[in-house]
Amino acid sequence: MDYRTIKTLGQLKQSGYRPLGIREEMRNNLVKALQEKRNLFAGIRGYEDTVIPQLQTAILSRHNMILLGLRGQAKTRIARTMTMLLDEYIPVVSGSELNDDPMQPLSRFAIDAIAEKGDDTPVSWLHRSDRYAEKLATPDVSVSDLIGDIDPIKAASMKLTYADERVIHFGMVPRSNRCIFVINELPDLQARIQVALFNILQEGDIQIRGFRLRLPLDIQFIFTANPEDYTNRGSIVTPLKDRIGSQILTHYPRTKETAAEITRQEANIPESQRDSITMDALLLDLVEEVAFEARKSEFVDQKSGVSARLTISAVENLYSVAERRRLLNGEKKTNGRIADIYGIVPAITGKVELVYEGELEGITSVAYTLIGKAIRKVFTGLFPDPEKIKKSKQKNPYAELINWFGDGNEVDLVHNLDDRGYEKLLGEVPFLKEIVKTCHPKATRQEQLLLMEFILHGLSEFSQISKKQLEKGVRFKDLIGSMLNLKPSEED
């Protein structure tokens, strides 16, 4: 039956409709989803065996909940996904500020309307997408914003005294009756404002300027918080924390594969870029490795965390660096290059917080260090580890290439070099192609070129050859020669 054809309270009664609290409603819909093996959290990746089972348990327990985790761990996205557990439509008394259930009215407006019109009381239908409210906690949030206050204009226009409850202007919380209400960054909310939520969470009544209204509000509360905030900006007062049924800890992706899925899902890459740029999986793997290196770097503040937004922005930058080169060279298509990875530096510098040692190094220097460590890690998965070769005293597959640089040869890899020039330049470096063919005999022509460039970057990170960042590119040369030719300022 399509309940939206029902327009009055009388028709609603005849339909057999029975009121259901929001938590019971969410519980019932989750039970059905679990029985039917439907995944209502399909867009949330990496939490299948950790966070999502805890969320489901909290919903089955009819709990208010708090999502506790570092930035960029999909806390707000999880909260917004919760609307999928709501019924598609619910009935409300038309014109009600508090989304009153026609069968269980709360507000003075709804009670008076039903008393006056009876079964002819108009009924409207509220879609689940309109049953979500979100408030970012900031120090300037007031009790009036959340709970409500007396409205002098309403009192004057209706010719009522301040003793009449009809002069109350309700805040966001009462207006979210029968909805999901989210408060992000809860510790940022002043303690006295947090205290105002006590009765709503436990007893359901609210107090406004001396009015004590017994309003059994039907709200699913979801709070989010960052552990860093407990010490840096504020805290959650203990009585409020005690009233929150379930605390759920979020986390960063445990594997690069999961992280890559999240990045691929969230990155905004236009079709024009996807069609004109071939981005090898090696480059995307390097981006993910940069984030993993940042999350364990001694220069990065681990209490602050490294958001998943870093890799999302980095991949968008990676495509744009290649697109810019394609446009400058008038090419219809191009391929991503290893050197393009340095184009993600702006995505790193704006998204990591440094400790004191990192500040001394400088944010740009730390970004290059993270990229270098990522190259080292990925390189050893594709080619023999230069350090292990040196320790084992076995034949060095890179020896002839290193000796070629030792003879005074250099390679200047210009960022905006067109594809033909890029291929010609790498082809002129002896022994590169032979190393790639030995380690990756099935690589395609484009994969060969990328791996040939990767060898140069990899050997430089292992201090086998020298790499110098130029304004327009990268220069590879002999390590010993470059050290002996340092200017006094460079030695310092």
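Next protein, fold it too.
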Amino acid sequence: MPSRINVHVVDDDDAVRDSLCLLLRLHGYVPRPHASGDAFLASIGDAPSSAIVLLDLRMPGTGGAGVQAALAERNVRWPVIMLTAHGDAASARNALKSGACDFIEKPVDETVLLAALEHAAAEAEAADAAAARRTETERRLARLTPREREVFAMVVAGRHNREVAAALGISPRTVEVYKARLMDKLDVERLPDLIRLSLDSAP
């Protein structure tokens, strides 16, 4: 049984929306129904973590592709499973290229949908964990002075002490002092740990 993750069901067909919500509840998800793409986009505000979107491709107003684009513009990285009664290879390819994690034709096969939801839930949890790491890394990096940040950037880029010293107009010994300070502030002991921090801070 999955954790009680929110699943936004965005479909203009009342019967389809209701049946999907029932199925989701039966399998431990928390359905959030929306009768249109526009209603969905208006409702989400500051997007909370851990959500999946079941998104109908063809709807009046803003359709599935438009909703996908709007989510990307807002930097909302929820996994999207696209649903359509008009499936074709081009639609599937475009949805997946635009970031959908799956594409399912109606009428929806329960087994296929549940497998897609399980995969999407794992993606959502991984995204949450990555976001938490970025937040913690940013908090730690905020402790550094501007000069320590310069040294940090050069060190994780693979530049040796003499190269850093030459670039900043300081001595190699001073570079060592800066490295010791920033590693103490970041609570790391080795270069690989610094590199991991740098990767965690990347968007």
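About the second fold: Residues 6 and 30 are 5 Å apart (CA to CA).
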